[in-house]
UniProtKB/TrEMBL annotation, chain A:
<dbReference type="InterPro" id="IPR036743">
    <property type="entry name" value="ARPC5_sf"/>
</dbReference>
<protein>
    <recommendedName>
        <fullName>Actin-related protein 2/3 complex subunit 5</fullName>
    </recommendedName>
</protein>
<feature type="region of interest" description="Disordered">
    <location>
        <begin position="136"/>
        <end position="172"/>
    </location>
</feature>
<keyword id="KW-0963">Cytoplasm</keyword>
<keyword id="KW-0206">Cytoskeleton</keyword>
<dbReference type="GO" id="GO:0030833">
    <property type="term" value="P:regulation of actin filament polymerization"/>
</dbReference>
<dbReference type="GO" id="GO:0005885">
    <property type="term" value="C:Arp2/3 protein complex"/>
</dbReference>
<comment type="function">
    <text>Functions as component of the Arp2/3 complex which is involved in regulation of actin polymerization and together with an activating nucleation-promoting factor (NPF) mediates the formation of branched actin networks. Arp2/3 complex plays a critical role in the control of cell morphogenesis via the modulation of cell polarity development.</text>
</comment>
<dbReference type="InterPro" id="IPR006789">
    <property type="entry name" value="ARPC5"/>
</dbReference>
TrEMBL record, chain B:
<protein>
    <recommendedName>
        <fullName>Actin-related protein 2/3 complex subunit</fullName>
    </recommendedName>
</protein>
<keyword id="KW-0677">Repeat</keyword>
<dbReference type="GO" id="GO:0034314">
    <property type="term" value="P:Arp2/3 complex-mediated actin nucleation"/>
</dbReference>
<dbReference type="InterPro" id="IPR015943">
    <property type="entry name" value="WD40/YVTN_repeat-like_dom_sf"/>
</dbReference>
<dbReference type="InterPro" id="IPR017383">
    <property type="entry name" value="ARPC1"/>
</dbReference>
<dbReference type="Pfam" id="PF00400">
    <property type="entry name" value="WD40"/>
</dbReference>
<keyword id="KW-0853">WD repeat</keyword>
<keyword id="KW-0963">Cytoplasm</keyword>
<dbReference type="GO" id="GO:0051015">
    <property type="term" value="F:actin filament binding"/>
</dbReference>
């Protein structure tokens, strides 16, 4: 029996290309949890985050914005199972960022970057900025269900020209502009490598 | 520092390149063929095309002593090209993989070569005299994803591999009858095939693009997609390493790295130029670019005439033509290799890029 005779109309079509061959293979990446590839992330409870927030607020009231920012960045909240803890941590970071004057940003970032472990701190800050931008841009588009059309460049908030189709409110626009100016300053200090690290990192804030 | 020697071969990406030991022949992976260039005066001229693969050639290597070329391709095959008076004669190697072969290197002893693949394994190939063919043995565990890069230890037994599961690993590829029993090293004493001598990953866990043993073999460096390089100093078998030093950079990721002695690493990649790292077990740091900036003839290429200036403004809305990068390579550097060495230190190294250039640099 030749192989050629086995060809039928069905085998000659392209349908076989849509078969997910990885699913048929036992040790392929779709058949194991990719989380097993790296050490587990520590869990942080919401209570811990509240405590951190209280400490950070106290530092802010005392006028030590740099200490507050450092406090947030040195204890990033990764806890993979608790979305609320991570959201609370993000809110704290945004609060700190909004309280820092534009003229103080660059010198502060340079001081943090120059200190021990500073590069990691700025990577964490970049993670919070990315998450913050994602959160504010989806909040700005109201409560409509997420659709692919909302993923247009304007929706991610990078366009500054004119009102966006999602018609964001004043406050989210302000939050976004704070995040964007921080983003610019962080890239100036920590370079493009920082963006690459945030994108390749498994530890999500 | 002498100016780099630039050979612009064509306008296609070069996945990998290799010089013969006498530097007269240059082999290049281009599309589905291996192109051989020979030195004519100061330039490299296309001399031969080795056709045998039917998909993109991903990697190749010339053995310095025997002159044999090994190439591997996305068609899941590796070919060994034997130099004969009538030209190169290919021999197919049965890799037994069902995904693309991604990377190939001869061992320093030239009796074996290792092929990395998308099949989550490394095929270690050696020649079997009695059957007169190349056979392969698989290093499989605990690789979880595509192997992107390989590097041999000077003893030809230990093999470092980097993979897209963000781990750099050190394996034993000891094959009875081919290898002599290796001296015990910090990586291990008894080394049966597929012993995992080390497994490392970064904090931010990027894909590994390149691995390299130091000239002594007692340290391992790897470059990952998180724009970092990491240097590992093992202490003793089964013990945690003496030091793991990670250097996060402000640059774009590095695709390839080589050691220059024990205290310097040269790495190049998406920034289109090579950078030096210096240090030792106490710590490493980025010490700057290899390429001298502001070389005459690089920045402002020629005096612009007024006519030219207004034409530029009219055509492009700007005076300066900024379509050229300030680096010699105009696109990502895919591979760097030592070109000329004295002892452990590299005096010249060569780089190939997506821009179709081969550049020979003086360190």
């Amino acid at each position: 029996m030749s192989i050629i005779r086995e060809h039928t109309q069905a085998t000659l079509s392209d349908a076989w290309r849509t078969i997910n061959i990885d699913a048929l293979e036992e040790d392929s990446s779709v058949n194991f949890d990719t989380a097993t590839l790296h050490p587990a992330q520590p869990e942080t409870s919401e209570a811990d985050v509240r405590q951190l927030t209280a400490q950070v607020r106290q530092l802010l009231r005392g006028g030590d914005a740099e200490g507050a920012l450092r406090g947030c960045l040195e204890a990033p909240v990764y806890s993979p199972s608790s979305d609320s803890a991570r959201d609370a941590a993000l809110q704290t970071v945004i609060e700190v960022l909004q309280s820092i004057k534009a003229s103080e940003m660059t010198p502060m970032l340079q001081r943090i970057y120059g200190s021990a472990g500073g590069s990691e701190c700025l990577d964490v800050l970049m993670k919070y900025l990315n998450k913050g931008m994602a959160a504010t841009s989806s909040a700005s588009s109201g409560s409509a269900p997420r659709t692919p059309t909302r993923m247009t460049p304007q929706q991610t908030g990078f366009s500054q020209i004119g009102p966006r189709p999602g018609a964001p409110s004043e406050s989210t626009g302000a939050a976004m502009s704070v995040l964007l100016s921080w983003h610019e300053k962080v890239v100036e200090v920590a370079g493009l490598g920082c963006i690459g690290r945030v994108m390749s990192d498994w530890r999500r804030v | 520092m002498a100016a780099p020697e630039v050979h612009h071969l064509f306008h296609n990406p070069i996945a990998d390149h290799s010089f013969s030991a006498d530097h007269k022949t240059l082999a290049i992976a281009r599309d589905t063929a291996v192109e051989l260039y020979s030195k004519a005066g100061n330039a490299y001229k296309l001399q031969d095309e080795l056709k045998g693969h039917d998909k993109t050639v991903t990697s190749l290597d010339i053995a310095p002593n025997s002159g044999r070329i090994v190439s591997c391709s996305q068609d899941r095959n590796a070919l060994v090209w034997e130099p004969t008076p009538q030209g190169y004669k290919p021999t197919l190697v049965l890799l037994r993989i069902n995904r693309a072969a991604t990377f190939v290197r001869w061992s320093p002893s030239e009796t074996k070569f290792a092929v990395g693949s998308g099949d989550r394994l490394i095929a270690v190939c050696y020649f079997e005299q009695e059957n007169d063919w190349w056979v392969s043995k698989h290093l499989k565990k605990p690789i979880r994803s595509t192997v992107t890069t390989l590097a041999w230890h000077p003893n030809s037994v230990l093999l470092a591999a980097g993979s897209t599961d963000a781990h750099a690993r050190v394996f034993s590829s000891f094959i009875k009858g081919v290898d002599a029993r290796p001296e015990p090293t910090a990586w291990g004493e008894r080394l049966p095939f597929n012993t995992v001598c080390g497994e490392y990953m970064n904090n931010s866990a990027g894909w590994i693009h390149s691995v390299a043993f130091s000239p002594s073999g007692d340290a391992l460096a790897y470059a990952a997609h998180d724009s970092s390089i990491t240097v590992v100093y093992p202490s003793a078998p089964e013990q945690p390493p003496k030091a793991v030093i990670s250097i996060n950079t402000q640059l774009l990721p590095f695709m390839s790295l080589i050691w220059n002695g024990e205290a310097e690493i040269i790495a190049a990649g998406h920034d289109c130029e090579a950078f030096r790292f210096q240090g030792g077990i106490g710590g490493w740091q980025l010490s700057g670019a290899v390429e001298a900036k502001g070389r005459p003839g690089m920045g402002d290429q020629r005096e612009e005439s007024a006519l030219n200036m207004f034409r530029q403004m009219d055509l492009k809305g700007k005076v300066k033509d900024d379509t050229q990068l300030k680096t010699t390579h105009q696109n990502t550097i895919t591979m760097i290799r030592p070109y000329e060495a004295s002892g452990d230190s590299v005096r010249k190294f060569s780089s190939s890029g997506v821009d179709g250039r081969i550049v020979i640099w003086t360190v």
